[in-house]
Write a structure and sequence with these properties.
With 54 residues, this protein is mainly α. It is built from 1 helix and no strands.
Length: 54
């Protein structure tokens, strides 16, 4: 009985890992543009967070 439950646990683990791997692959396959480098984005002016000087 122990080997049957162990086999089922290994199968469930394999299924979980394959689902996680495929979802990560789908996320990296998306073409997400880099929007953080444009000035004035998200209230930030330039690259210094809106601060003009010190």
């Amino acid at each position: 009985m122990g080997s049957k439950s162990r086999r089922l646990a290994m199968l469930a683990l394999l299924l979980c890992c394959s689902i996680i791997a495929s979802s990560c692959e789908a996320v990296t396959a998306q073409n997400i543009p880099d929007t953080g480098s444009r000035p004035g984005n998200n209230g930030m002016q330039g690259g210094n967070g809106g601060r003009t000087g010190r």
